Amino acid sequence: MELSTLEETTTLETTLGHLRRPLLPKVLQVQQGIVRAVHDFMFKKGLTQLMPLMLSPITDPLNHGVVDATIGYADRHWSLTKSMIFHKQLALLNPALQSLYIVSPNVRLEFSDRAGTGRHLFEFTQIDFEFKDKDRFYVMEFMEELVNAVFARLNAEIPEVLLELRGELLPQYEQWPVYRTEKLEAALGPDYERIKSEEATTPFWLLNHTREFYDKEDPAKPGTYLNYDLIWPDGFGEGLSGAEREHEYHQIRKRMAQVGTSQEIFKHYLEVAREEGLPRTAGAGFGVERMTRFICRLKDVDEVTVFSRKPYAASLF
Ligand code: ASN
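^ thats the input. predicted complex w/ asparagine below
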């Protein structure tokens, strides 16, 4: 969509209408409850909180194209944060730091084809966490425990809000099914993720997406990856992605070449991998607005925002 069309369709009335929605404060109460419960959970589990960064010479290349968001400052290009993946890994170079988390604002200037997914905002917050010397099984179990802890807290703290928004309290999940992308694709075709999410009644894990160079390739099965997505049920789709990370210099370079990442932009990161050695880590990040949307059973994640951030349907503020 051209900007001129945007100007015509985004009026002051629609912008103010969005922020005046009567149910919005209740949705925000749920979101606040999630963040508070997550902080307490992370504290109990011993993760150190880092403050977010919004600008860096390197950021997540993502596995899909977005509009470039770099600015010039002090003779250098600085990218707006798409995720803090590399900063999580680099921060764990500190020998006294074992695990960390960040409430991290991300800017991803999505193209208009993601405007109608119900799951994309061009600016959102993810809670990103990373552990040194842990594997995918540890991270998946950690997230399962986190979801149940957050849901139990919300049930205890704001039952009347949950009843009004979703008609019932939140469940506790005992079993999280685990599927592999290649098997689901063979059974259900290319739209397997959506189909499985619509069929599911509990969250589940989807293993092995072919993605960014930093998701570790399985040494036992080259061409497959030690990553995991949490998929919310009832058609709400992806809510978290994470992986064990590549940390060996030659393997990182091989994967960069395969997926077409610029080694020039990442030269200092590569230097650390070559000279210092990156720590062996695993982690993940989940979308706060997406978790809020799932809990409140909202049609579109943009219903969680005060100022719309739906791709190409910009708010005036
Ligand atoms: N936060 C994700 C991870 O830890 C990366 C991302 O958001 N693209 O793997």
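Residues 43 and 75 are 39 Å apart (CA to CA).
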